[in-house]
Design goal:
Blueprint: E1 5-12, H1 20-42, H2 47-60, E2 80-86, E3 91-98, H3 104-114, E4 119-121, H4 122-132, H5 139-142, H6 145-156, H7 173-176, E5 181-182, E6 185-186, E7 195-200, E8 206-212, E9 233-235, E10 239-245, H8 247-253, H9 255-266, H10 270-280, E11 287-293, E12 298-302, E13 306-313, E14 318-323
Parallel strand pairs: 3-4
Antiparallel strand pairs: 1-7, 1-13, 2-3, 2-8, 5-6, 7-8, 9-10, 10-11, 11-12, 13-14
Helix pairs in contact: 1-2, 2-3, 9-10
Bound molecules: aspartic acid (ASP).
Length: 324
Amino acid sequence: MGGWAIAVHGGAGVDPNLPLERQQQAKALLTRCLNLGISALRSSLPAIDVVELVVRELETDPLFNSGRGSALTEKGTVEMEASIMDGNGRRCGAVSGITAVKNPISLARLVMDKSPHSYLAFSGAEEFAKQQGVEMVGNDYFVTEDNVGMLKLAKEAKAILFDYRIPLESTCGAAAESPIQMNGLPISIYAPETVGCVVVDGEGRCAAATSTGGLMNKMTGRIGDSPIIGAGTYACEVCGVSCTGEGEAILRGTLARDVAALMEYKGLGLQEAVDHVVQKRLDQGKAGLIAVSNKGEVAYGFNCVGMFRGFATEDGFMEVGIWD
Ligand code: ASP
C-alpha cells in the first residue's frame, strides 16, 4: 500500500483569458479543499467520508459550478446533479434535477446509504431529501449575479455553455475565432467548473464524488455525465475517478469506468489508463479527469485548454494547477 492520496478538480476547459484574480481565487479554493481533505485523512476518516466532505466545501463556495453558483437552465433555474461511489463494496448514490438541497452530494450519499436505490431524480429526490431532513434552501441561494449575466450572454449567442464560457462575438477576441462546437452549436472558449474529488485512504479504499449545476443555458430536464456512475464518476477496489467537461462527450466515452476497466482487465497503471482514455475515448477538446489508485498514486488528463485541479499524497507531494 502506498499511503493515502487525494485529488480535486474544479472543472475542465478553462478560458485562456481568465483574469488572473479569478485564477488565484480558484487556486486558493482548491488548496483550502485539499488541506481539508488532508487533515481528514490524517485523522483516519474513510475515503468515502473525505470525498463527501471536500465536495460539500466546493458546493458551498459560489466560485465553481456546483451547489451555490450552479450554472442555470434556459429558464434561469437550477437543476443540480451529483454522484458518489465507494470503491469499498462498489456502493453508489446519485441525484439529478435538484433545485432546493443545499448540498446535493450529501443527498447522493443518503441515496446510497439510506434508500433501496442508487439514483433518484427531480421531485422524488427532493421528497426523499425532506424525509431525510437535509438542509433545504430557496432558489435565490443558488443563483449568483455572475451566472445571471452569463445566462444572458449564452442566450444572446444562442449557445449552450459550460459555466463561465464567454460566448462567441462577445468580449473575448480569441473566442470569436473559435471553431469549437457542441452538438452542432457554436460555443465559446470555455471554463466549465464542475467539481469533483477522488481519494484513496490509508487502508487503500478508493472513493469518488462529482457535483455540478450542469451546462449554462441547458434545457430543463437535461442530465449530464456527472450523476452517471461509470461516466462522470466511478470507484472500485483499484481506483477512483471523477470527470469534468462536456457531459455528452463523457457519456459517449464512459470515461470513468473505462479507466477502471483498463486497470482491472488489462493491468494498465493508473496514468497509462488515464492517458489511454483521454486519447482514445474522448473527442478532442472536450473534457478531463482526475484519478487515484489503491497504491496511493494520483493521475490526471485533459484534452482541452486547462483544468482546475489539485493533488496531494501522504509522502508530502502537493500541487495545484490550471494549465497544461
Ligand atoms: N460535465 C458537466 C456536465 O456536462 C459539466 C462540467 O464538467 O463542467 O454537466
